[in-house]
Specification:
The protein has 476 residues and is an alpha/beta fold. It has two domains: 254 residues, Aspartate Aminotransferase, domain 2 (3-Layer(aba) Sandwich), CATH 3.40.640.10; 123 residues, Alpha-Beta Complex (Aspartate Aminotransferase, domain 1). Helix content is 36%, strand content 10%. A hairpin with an 8-residue loop joins β11 and β12.
């Protein structure tokens, strides 16, 4: 039931103190002609409503959440506690720098540690999320070429297995997107890349490990091909959880990288934010970074680069997310960061090996943090689709993996267990997958209705997409 349907005239809860300053209203012509449609509920009604909603949702605190390419892992609560300290929460972004030296120290320290992890030289924390970081990184690439008078570079190369935001970000930055196909091994087709690399190429956007969970064995050759034609290399850091502390994008030949602090470094993913997609870069791109950069030793201050591309977000980014990321890095330390990525890879390969007897893998061999199954043959034999298996997992208390992505794999299910799941959880997940496989073989019709035990059962997704109801209709 919607909260508006629970509303009863005359009910309410007094949660704000009386106004202690004069009330000043806008001019009458600027005032609303009709009152706001706000629900009237008691505090108890309100509390129960949101508790009921919480029980109907599924998060990493409820059960296994193997959403591929998203790193939905458990976040240590100590990071939340650090970000809740009054010295971080009770400040204003317009305070003079000398009054917030501790906050500037957080930004400077986080920049130093994240640059060490990525092999880069400078960083901006302004971007609010991953795609925002992609766009910012492309603005740096564009500014670099323009500063050299090299304005004929109008193309960005993007592998066909890329995240969908990659081509969108490139288009927003004013570039033409050229898709580079994958080879039979799931990695970039080097010959196609060489054919596309020319003096009109501004750069390459690449995720490594890539979206099918493979570390591209030709990564050094890939970045060299792009550099030889005068382009720059952009690293999508969405999958950094697989290699942090093990390999650095800067050492692979990348010039700029965005990080998803809200994926890799223990800040909540999903739910509408806040996110953080800071951008690291090599020294050649540092003059173009968005303002403001933290400088100084004994007393820290902000500096705006002379050739800055300008602001991409207000003030200094989502600061408290950076606090959480710094707490996470300090807690794990130099030994814990690579251990986390190693365990992410171990868990993925363990679960993949458990599922191989029933579900064909799109690409055989050792994976990194995630793997992709293809249910094309299962669908042909039984009529049970990847969607049916994904929905069936809900009846086991497991959030579905990513469905039908990447697009280069037919009937794809992409699974990322993350490093925070136990062997027992992975064994239970394997049992669920096996049971659903057996059901597909013996009683496939049962899976077309799944899930059947959840608060909301199988929805008509086609109807919802074509005829969405996005507004509540108030009577009168």
């Amino acid at each position: 039931m919607l909260i508006f349907e629970k509303s009863r005239a005359g009910r309410g809860c007094q949660i704000l103190p009386p106004c202690d300053v004069p009330e000043i209203l806008p001019e009458e012509r600027e005032q609303r002609q009709q009152p706001l449609h706000l629900p009237a509920l008691s505090e108890g009604d309100l509390s129960r409503h949101y508790t009921e909603l919480a029980k109907k949702s599924h998060g990493v605190n409820d059960g296994f959440y193997p959403l591929g390419s998203c790193t939905m892992k458990y976040n240590p609560k100590i990071d939340e506690e650090a970000a809740a300290l009054p010295g971080f929460t009770e400040i204003h972004p317009l305070q003079p720098a000398h009054t917030v030296q501790g906050c500037l120290e957080v930004l400077k320290t986080a920049e130093s540690l994240l640059c060490q992890i990525t092999g880069m030289d400078r960083m901006t924390f302004q971007p609010a999320a991953g795609a925002h970081g992609e766009f910012t990184g492309l603005l740096l690439i564009k500014a670099y070429h323009v500063s050299r008078g090299d304005t004929a570079r109008t193309k960005i190369l993007v592998p066909d297995s890329a995240h969908g935001t990659n081509p969108a970000s490139a288009a927003m930055a004013g570039y033409k997107v050229v898709s580079i196909p994958s080879g039979p091994d799931g990695c970039v087709d080097l010959e196609k890349l060489r054919e596309a690399a020319g003096d009109d190429v501004a750069g390459l956007m690449l995720t490594n490990p890539n979206t099918v969970g493979l570390f591209d064995k030709n990564i050094l050759e890939i970045t060299e091909i792009v550099h030889q034609c005068g382009g720059l290399c952009y690293y999508d850091g969405a999958n950094l959880n697989a290699v942090m502390g093990q390999a650095r994008p800067g050492d692979m030949g990348f010039d700029v990288v965005h990080l998803n602090l809200h994926k890799t470094f223990a800040t909540p993913h999903g739910g509408g934010g806040p996110g953080s997609g800071p951008v690291d870069c090599k020294a050649l791109l540092a003059p173009f970074l968005p303002s403001l950069l933290v400088e100084g030793e004994s007393e820290l201050s902000f500096r705006k680069p002379e050739q800055s591309v300008g602001e991409v977000k207000s003030f200094y980014g989502n600061f408290l997310v950076v606090v959480k990321a710094l707490a996470y890095i300090w807690t794990l330390g130099r030994e814990g960061i690579p251990e986390a990525s190693a365990n992410a890879v171990l868990n993925a390969n363990y679960l993949m090996a458990k599922l191989k007897p029933w579900y064909p893998m799109a690409y055989d061999g050792i994976c990194m943090h995630e793997f992709v199954m293809t249910l094309a043959e299962l669908k042909k034999e039984t009529g049970v689709s990847a969607m049916d298996i994904a929905k069936g997992l809900l009846d086991w208390g497991i959030h579905p993996p990513t469905m039908y992505f990447p697009l280069i794999v037919e009937e794809a299910l992409m699974v990322e267990p993350t490093e925070t799941e136990s062997r027992e959880t992975l064994d239970q997940a394997a049992e669920a997958f096996h049971s659903l496989y057996q059901a597909a073989k013996t009683k496939p019709e049962s899976l077309h209705a799944a899930p059947v035990t959840t608060p909301v059962t199988r929805l008509d997704e086609v109807e919802a997409a074509r005829h969405p109801h996005l507004r509540y209709s108030f009577e009168g």
